[in-house]
Amino acid sequence: MKSTSSQAAVSSLLEENLKYMQTCFVDCRDLEIFRWHYGPKWDQTALSIYFTTLIKPNHHNYLKDALQNLVPHELGPATTVTVEDVAFFFEHHGAAAPAVEVLENLGQAVSGVLDGKVVIFFNDWNKALAYSAKDVEQRQTSEPITEPSVQGPHISTIENVDRNVGMLRNLLKTPQLKFEYLTAGELSRRKIAYGYLAGTVKPEILDEFRKRIAKIDRQEILEASYLEEWIEDSGYSPFPQVRYTERPDSVVSALLDGKIIAMVDGSPSIIICPGVFLEFFLANDDYYYRTVFSSLIRLLRVSAFIIALMLPSTYIALSTFHSELIPTVLLLAILNTREGIPFPAMVEALIMEFFFELLREAGIRLPRPIGSAVSIVGALVIGQAAIQSQIASPVMVIVVALTGIASFALPQYNMAIALRILRFPLMFIAATFGGLGIMVGIILVYLHLATLRPLGQPYLAAVSPLDLSRLRHTLVVLPRRVLLRRVSQQSPEGNENK
Fold first, then answer.
1. Where, by residue number, does the polypeptide cross the bilayer (predicted)?
2. How many domains does the chain have?
């Protein structure tokens, strides 16, 4: 497609418009130009231009058929209709006009064709018509892949923004649910939608979000994760500042919490922002089970976070610098398993972590039917071979395996990635300074978290500044009747996840 001036007005000469469109879409073999006639003695000419790969079959004749149906009722006998009658009818919003857009410049016509519309030029009329007939292949709704549900709804969002917005409006039937649209990218022209619940979202958060997302006007946005760089507070932080979901019920809960959601056409993921630290331990399924069980699961996730972050570095520090802190029987067992190992604990941990991460990536990239089998069998084979060849001790294999399993227990995958990154610096500092190094490393991580303010909100909300009530309600799932009574007594800004 060649670049031309998009501000040129539609010409009243049909051939000039045709020449312009042919110049724009040169070598586009799926472009169809359909010439048809109407009016007295069929002497009036019109052109329909569209991509056959974007529109529904046989929908290029929609407007032609509509005009023929309207002739005896609104435009007069078929033998007397002229281009002036057509222009007057659509410019003054006739009965069929709302489904048709009147275009005044050729840039709009080019964009309409690219958007899956049929654009129609009429001879002796300096405007064009466009109506949507888009029919692009898309998958049907299915169960969420990244967030499987045992007891909750079994439906996920898809790659179509309009369908996703429809699903959310079906679940949240209120005029307070607002959606705004923008288009990003000069080439991809990808539709972006963001939504919020008026009266629940804080105005300062919404203003900051609009200010940041307005900067992506000319950027090529191909997936929802592309938006994260503009929304987040610090692009170099390993910690995520937005959440991702493919579950409409999770999106509705976030909207009721005063969050802003964003989605991109062509991506099934929906961004929830701002994301604060404690929210990455929550899952919507917690509210579908009994209170005691859900509360224990949340505490288990917090334990998994600590294990995934600190277990390898703690083992290295204890075995290298603080062996007196290990019970004698356990210490003797560890020394017995490490007998003959040629590497210090740090090198041993690095080797095992490297191969574990390698197996994890291989399991993701391989086709699904064999990916899980390869990762499981590979872990068993390599672990056993490492022990028998005395490259690694059984205790180190257990430590690495427990660390990996703990990272899988977190609901948000991007938080697990942050732990994978931070684990290695903590291992190095533990091998150098022991327990003191771990303490300094954790303090530095905490200070970094305290400085993050996604969309102006403290990342450690409820932890710093300390809010015991909010912290308790985040870590413990309240009974439904207590939660509803508590929410009804609060302002909209303070609502918890419902």
1. 299-321, 391-410, 422-449
2. 3
